[in-house]
Amino acid sequence: MKRVPQDSTRAVDVGAALGHVDRLLQSADLSGRDRNALQSVRDTLAAIEADAPASLPTYRELFNAMPDPVTVLDMDGVVLELNDAALRAFRQPRDEVIGRPIHELNPDLPRDHMGPVREAVNRGERYLTEVTNKRADGTRFPVEVHSARLDYDGHRYVVAVARDLTSRRSGELRYRELMELVDKGILIRDETDRVVHANAAAMRMFEVGDQPVDEAFRREHWLIINEDGRELEADELPAVLARTTGRVIGSTVLGYYHRVSRRLIWVSVTAVPQFAPDTDRVQQVMTLFSDVTALKRDSSLFDRAQALAHIGGWEWEPGQDRLYLTDEAQRILGREPAPRTMDELLGSLRESDRRELRDALDAALADTGELDVEVLATRGDGHSVWIRMIGESDTNQPLQARLTGTLQDVTERRQGEETLRVQSRTDPLTTLLNRDALLSELDVRLADPTQTGVAVLYVDLDRFKVVNDLLGHAAGDGLLASAAHRIQHAVGSEGLTARFGGDEFLIVCNTRDDPGRPQRLAQAIVDAFNPSFRLDDDDFNVTASVGIALASMPGTTAQALIQNADVAMFESKRRGRNGWQLFTQPMAEQQQHRLQLENKLRRATEKGEFRLVYQPQIDLTTGVLVGVEALIRWKNQTLGEIRPDRFIEHAEATGDIVGIGGWALREACRQMREWLDAGVSVPRVAVNVSYRQFLAEDLAGNVRAALEEHRLPGAALELEFTERVLIEDVPDTLRAFAALRELGVALSIDDFGEGYSALNYLRRLPIHGVKISKLFVEGVPENDSDVAVCRAVAGIAQSLGLDVVAEGVENERQRECLRQMGIATGQGYLFAPALQPDEIEARYGRLLTTR
After folding, report:
1. How far apart are CA 183 and CA 851, in angstroms?
2. Nearest 5 degrees, angle CA 685-CA 688-CA 694?
3. % of the chain with per-residue pLDDT over 70
4. Are 565 and 500 within 8 A, CB to CB?
5. Closest Cα partner for 57 from 9, 109, 124?
6. Does domain 600-771+828-850 correspond to CATH entry 2.170.130.30?
């Protein structure tokens, strides 16, 4: 390891030393203290050079004369030499320091800290950094280290001079403490105009709470005006002027108006630029604020500035009931002559607001010291104005109670809030009350013991879906708006009318003074639909079915009342539509039976009460089995065997069909795996899927899981959908169908032709086939209309490349007629009813396994 010579008898090359010191003095980055120390060394060297050579001090004497710690390092950071000041700083013996890497002495240094030092000194530059040094006793102290290159005796070294910053850091702490103690607000902005510090007085003065200071004082939150009420541009603000000009901007009175809280504060502002060391660059700006709001209260300039923000001032002396209003406050109240007493101001308010303001004034004087109320006043021209009064008691006047504050016109805001409140209760399409608003009103009426005899009318439009599907949603919306107008006109002021959802409406009325009102209103609504609706130059005969339910028993809930009216409405539809029906006791019993059925249905899956049977699907030409359709059956211990058309409808209505459909999917896949393992090669199993399974869950994910669980290819499964799936949500349907197609699953439309708009979507969806409803097949070949429908469906399917399955094939004549139409597959009692799994195996197993 190279060592710097330490021979105390060897004289220093004074001329070389002088040259090195002169180069250091020419550096622009030296602090004043470093420059003075180097200058002292230079003066000493110059004096020595002028004297006799015998008087030259040794290298060690000069080295130890430096007042700051100096360390000589090799280019890898190993300590080669250090002066007495450095030994005192480290508080370690010399032998324990020499020869050790500097990062071992200062653990806070990274191991690669010498990299940037070497780069700088090799370029002939100085390297400056702030680090924390560690003493032998473990204490630390901050230092500013200046590193420079030293070429000596053919070798290159690094000389590091450390300056203790402890006293400067202590000064900064005292400076911060002083900032927090003064009663003037102080903001510090950096050179980018960002607020980096605000003292406690500033936070209190501007009432910014616990927000981050930069966010609280953002320019966009504040409207800043001068004494003439003119809004200042950014480059006119004192802090900006101080930063751009480098000059102190003396006391300037400005108004700061907070846009959110609507509070105006007047302050006297002084901005002081602060420069970076040894430069003329403004590093930050300190702005001092004094609150002068009280001094501005009686000023005409204050009135003009308040008017800019539409805020007036007021002051009230309750002892003499003397009220002072600024010009802007008088303009807001709009009364001539202006109120001179609080009683006169109270006289312009409505009774309820008069009591509210009086109570707030009394509380502010006696207790809280503050008030903040919004009241409705009447102006001299008869128009109403909402005013917000904010005030507080004057604690500086202990012998004379006084309230001062601001008065603001908040009419526009209150009207906006009222508009939003109305909108939140209103259906935007029909302008009637919406569902939530009506439910709230109904709950209030049912909870009020004085409100006896409440009735609910449930209105559903007949054949609305036909118009909506045929002409589109825009025409459907127009029809709903027209229907709402007719219903509202029929009900008039005798009840509350609301759009309950879709094409359903609800009316709430009282029967106390007119027991026959619900029936009379129901008939009026039905009659209102007698003239047909004209849409796109065509007439559409849309009627209404109405159900009526009476709250005859105390404690009736809104949900129960609406449900009863809903049941009555469905009964009206069942009896032929275009009429009304009152909810009766037999209906209540039917409702009870339905609830019983729904409760048992909800637990049927976990009790294992469902089973699947399978109806074969046969090639109409060869008679070969091409697949089976899984059909669900339910047998309850109490209710016995329940027909599918009965419980499926309930499951759809309650949403239980989602769980039931998931079970059926998994069970069909399980059975398919069992057949395959037993050598029964059923080509494919078809499973019905409800539209609710689309809406409630990830159908494609569930299908994938079922196939993977039972090790089945996608081609082993076919999913049958009703036409309702096609029109519920076309984008979601397309995505789901595409995901199912990627699994290899076959997709078909069940009971094709019974809906209204399947053809509109059929060409857009990636399906494999359609099933002709047995409603059309049963008339083949005798009924020409049914034959025409079947032939049309077959033709459409063939043109789109789709398979066709005919349901309900019961005789050979039907089979032959359908086959000649080009329909390849059929199912029905001609071939087999729905069979148990073992019956499928017995009937088709051997034929398929030997084929």
Report:
1. 102
2. 125
3. 83
4. no
5. 9
6. no
Q: What CATH fold (topology level) applies to the domain 14-164?
A: Beta-Lactamase (3.30.450)
- Contact between 665 and 706 under an 8 Å Cβ cutoff? The reply is yes
Quick one: DSSP state of residue 58?
B
Q: Is pLDDT of 6 > 50?
A: no
Helices (H), 697-773: 699-709, 723-728, 730-742, 758-762
Alpha-carbon distance 619 to 630, whole Å?
Answer: 18
Tokens for 363, please give them: 């509380």
Query: Is omega for the bond preceding 277 within 30 degrees of 0, making it cis?
Result: no
Integer-rounded Cα radius of gyration of the chain: 46
Contact 662, 604 (CB under 8 A): no
3-state class of 377 per DSSP? strand
Structural element, H or E, at residue 186? strand 185-190
pLDDT of residue 336: 85
Residues in the chain: 851
> For the chain, what is the mean pLDDT?
82
Q: Which one is the CATH code of 169-296: 3.20.20.80, 3.40.50.740, 3.40.190.290, 3.30.450.20?
A: 3.30.450.20
Confidence class for position 177, pLDDT limits 50, 70, 90: low
Classified as helix, coil or strand, 101 is strand
Q: Describe the strand order of the beta sheet including 70-73 as a list of residue ranges.
A: 79-82, 70-73, 155-164, 140-152, 127-134
In angstroms, the CA 173 to CA 530 distance is 87
Q: In what helix (H) or strand (E) does residue 344 lie, and over which residues does it extend?
A: helix 342-346
Give Cβ neighbours of residue 458 (< 8 Å, ≥ 6 apart): 500, 504, 505, 506, 546, 547, 548, 549, 562, 565, 566, 568, 569
Tokens of 257: 């108006």
Least trusted range by pLDDT, from 138-147, 511-520, 664-673, 807-816: 138-147
- 424 in Cβ contact with 404 (< 8 Å): no
Q: What value does the mean pLDDT take over residues 51-59?
A: 50
C-alpha to C-alpha distances, 276 to 191, 279, 282, 284, nearest whole angstrom: 10, 6, 6, 8
Q: Any residues with CB less than 8 A from the CB of 107 and at least 6 apart, and which?
A: 134
Pair 733, 691: CB distance under 8 Å: no
Flag whether pLDDT at 24 surpasses 70.
no
**Alpha carbons within 13 A on the beta-carbon side of 720:** 22
| Spans of all domains in the chain | 14-164, 169-296, 310-314+337-416, 427-583, 600-771+828-850
Q: Which residues contact 300 (CB under 8 A, 6 or more apart)?
A: 327
Quick check: 553 and 454 in contact, CB under 8 A? no
Cα–Cα distance measured from residue 779 to residue 771, given in angstroms and rounded to the nearest whole number: 16
Enumerate the β-bridge partners of residue 718. 686, 746
CA angle 453, 454, 455 (to 5 degrees): 115
Q: Does residue 337 have a cis bond before it (omega within 30 degrees)?
A: yes
**pTM attached to this predicted model:** 0.43
pLDDT value, residue 203: 86
Q: What number is the average pLDDT over the span 55-77? A: 77
Residue at token pair 């849409």: 535
How far apart are alpha carbons 613 and 595 in whole angstroms?
27
Closest CA to 269 of 310, 236, 303, 306: 236
* CA gap 804, 27 in Å, rounded: 95
Residue 38 has pLDDT above 70, yes or no: no
pLDDT at 761 over 50: yes
For residue 607, the 8-state DSSP code is T
Q: Identify which has the larger pLDDT, 58 or 593.
A: 593
Distance CA 147, CA 160 (A): 4
Q: Are 793 and 782 in contact, with CB atoms under 8 Å apart? A: no
Residue 299 in tokens: 């000023």
